[in-house]
Amino acid sequence: MHENYINGEWVGAGEVNRNLNPSDTRDVVGEYARGDDAQARQAIDAASDALETWATWTSEARADALDRIGDRILADKERLGELLAREEGKALAESIGEVTRAGRVFKFFAGEAIRFGGEFLPSVRPGVSVEVSREPVGVVGIITPWNFPIAIPAWKIAPALAYGNSVVFKPADLVPGCAWALASIVDEVGGLPKGVFNLVMGPGSKVGNALVTSPKVDAITFTGSSDTGRRIAAECAVRGAKFQLEMGGKNPLVVLDDADLELAVSTAINGAFFSTGQRCTSSSRLIVEKGIHDRFVERMREATQALTVGNALHPDTQIGPVASQAQLDQDLSYIEAAKRAGCRLEAGGERLSLETPGYYLTPALFSQTRNDMPINREEVFGPVATVIEADDYEHALALANDTVYGLSSGICTQSLARATHFKRHSSAGMVMVNLPTAGVDYHVPFGGRKGSSHGPREQGSYAKEFFTNVKTSYTLAQGV
Ligand code: NAD
């Protein structure tokens, strides 16, 4: 059994989580410990006790540790990519890409450990100077979703460690494999003091809840669904813990009449269906100006039908299976509801039986949908995209912004004026011009607005806003 990692030791748990391959449900990826709240508390105590020793490490020593972890992830990217594809169902090439990103994130934050600094200012009072410095927050609880099982943990764990915090990491139940593999790399090459990094696999209701409610956990960084995020926010607010939430999306891609049709179609196909549509940044609403609408729908239908759905490990698969039975049921119920509501199914939306038993679903494209329908209001989180027709640019912009979410948005146009206006007036945290709404760099801030996000941005040097506390010190120089 793959065990939890607490205070530098591998520790078993009473319950076992059998990790199944969604491309072939006969294939057991492995058996993983399913910890509980008592184990979470042990890890929290270890992380709390480790802070003192961790604080004696120089920034250079922290940087070297992160660099070694990043190097090992990159060296192992084929093996880890295969594991990711096998446990989550992401197509192999994308899985290896995600692992590569995780390695790069560690190496980026290795540099940040040394680079980040403070400010020194003259005071407004005579003889006084002011320092603004940053200190670790303390013990950070890291709670992650299943859809990016190595990249999201990496972009939370790496900055937490870079800025001197200790960590208790709780991955999603569905994907313990990548979390465990990452923990084993930290154990093997990190050389961190015992207790600085801990992995506790187990249910959100026990392990996650123990992190959120423990007075010894100073900050919670969470990525997952909006419902869970809201619950965590309420708990953290009551006990005064710092928290950061990245949640759902209903991201619009606007296609204007002047767009390059082929570029718009490939952008929409990538944004809507790659990673089986299971991305918080996926382009689930395609808002299309009426002059290009019919041609766009026709080309999208052809391109959607041409996608190869298959076993995530097969090299020619473009769209892997849905990650779980529960997610598949959710996708199918939204597809049925959209049909009942009168939306036109242009392509896909069907269960596929392939040679290995898995949760295969052909990507579904709907036209003739309205923005007020549930399929356009609620996050499906599957390979399901809708087309909404817009009268003109202003109408398209209004539709794009008419959502409770605000993570990512995009526009396909050849007009610099429209692109500039859209960048300024989109109510999303990230805006793409002639690019898919999903797919971001790791050295710049990531995050949304409205119901999609709460708290400081993740990634890039902006990550320090969450993972450090600011201190302002005043000095009156005496003597000389
Ligand atoms: P989820 O909310 O079900 O679970 C996320 C994590 O929270 C898991 O580790 C889970 O075990 C834990 N959890 C559940 N209940 C908890 C509780 N009461 N206390 C503490 N922890 C608890 O989400 P999911 O299904 O794993 O992920 C899919 C969701 O994640 C989608 O909504 C997607 O949009 C979102 N997501 C957002 C981003 C982003 O950056 N905005 C990125 C990826 C995924």
UniProtKB/TrEMBL annotation:
* UniProt domain Aldehyde dehydrogenase: residue ranges: 17-472
Question: Known PROSITE patterns for this protein?
Answer: ALDEHYDE_DEHYDR_GLU (PS00687)
Q: Which InterPro entries match?
A: Ald_DH/histidinol_DH (IPR016161), Ald_DH_C (IPR016163), Ald_DH_CS_GLU (IPR029510), Ald_DH_N (IPR016162), Aldehyde_DH_dom (IPR015590)
Mind telling me what this protein is named?
Aldehyde dehydrogenase (NAD+)
Keywords tagged on the record: Oxidoreductase
The reply on keyword Oxidoreductase is yes
Q: Which residues form the active site?
A: E246
Record family assignment = Belongs to the aldehyde dehydrogenase family.
Q: Name one Pfam family in it.
A: Aldedh
Q: Which organism was this protein described from? A: Billgrantia gudaonensis
UniProt GO MF annotations: oxidoreductase activity, acting on the aldehyde or oxo group of donors, NAD or NADP as acceptor
Checking PANTHER family in the record gives:
ALDEHYDE DEHYDROGENASE-RELATED (PTHR11699)
